[in-house]
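Quick one: structure tokens for this chain, please?
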Amino acid sequence: METYLRPGLELREASEADKADRRVYAMLQLLGAMENGFGNAAYGIAWEDYPAFIDTLIRQRDAPDLAGGFVPQASLWLFDGDEAIGYAKLRYYLNDRLRERGGHIGYGIRSDRRGQGYASAMLALCLRRAEALGIGEALITCDEANIASRRVIEKNGGRLISLPGEHCRYLVLT
């Protein structure tokens, strides 16, 4: 087992129950709208609008807008005990756009919990889920200047395959 996976860490998939979960809502408000290439459409939304956001995440898993360039993806929350720590997106397959930027897995950790090993743990747990989906090698991308994310990916076995422009592309065995 990876040493950065510790007891109490759990990856939970977004569900109807999250519509009433203020812990997840609060965590999403600490992530920012677009930090280091990770998009968080819940940032800044009112609590009253939050259930519709969860509906969107469930639709992205079950019936995404394929014509609009989307692919099915799971939205996942990292919990440490009862505390919501991070948000990850696990895409079931890639289209041309995601092969260039985005990849199979994107992730973000709330601002007050960064630098504590949570991103490494969340990525490790996402890679396990990717393996269960039959993804043998996950593509993960990040901004070239995002040294912390590059270290997280490399810590999880990421092999740099290209630096197209201002972002890095890694392959990671699941």
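The first helix runs from residue 22 to 29.
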